[in-house]
Amino acid sequence: MNEVKAPLPTKRRPDWAALIIAAGLMVIAVVIFYDMLHVRALANYAKIGPTTVPNIIAGGLVLLSIWTAVEAWRGDFPERERQEYGPVIWIVAGLAGQMLLLRPLGFSIATGVLFAATAAGFGRRKLWLSLPVGIVLSFVVWVIFAKLLQLALPAGPLEHLFF
Q: Are residues 102 and 57 in the same domain?
């Protein structure tokens, strides 16, 4: 008799990136729980206080962390596509540029730089066009928040030119 043998299932290795994500989720949950230990309840008689929602969020993060770790250990995550580092570098550079330029040049120009770098990260490499568009859009946002809503956003030379 010829028996047909089923092929042995290939054992997948644990997904180490997902295990690191699970550990990160657990660290965030522990930080939230620890921080809530130092929050004093304003009224001890109330069942819902200032620590209720953060504790629920931390509990949810613990559950997500455990679930992610189990799935990672079993190797049940689908194969991920290869990471493209160019767009990530553009966006991180834009964020760094915004942080560095925010105080000396103001909100509009700094956020315009972030806009242009993010657009470049998404494939729109015409910086000569995306930079001025980003500055104009950021200026409109600055006017709405700083002038209409009276919120404090850093003003630079462009904002001082008009206001």
A: no
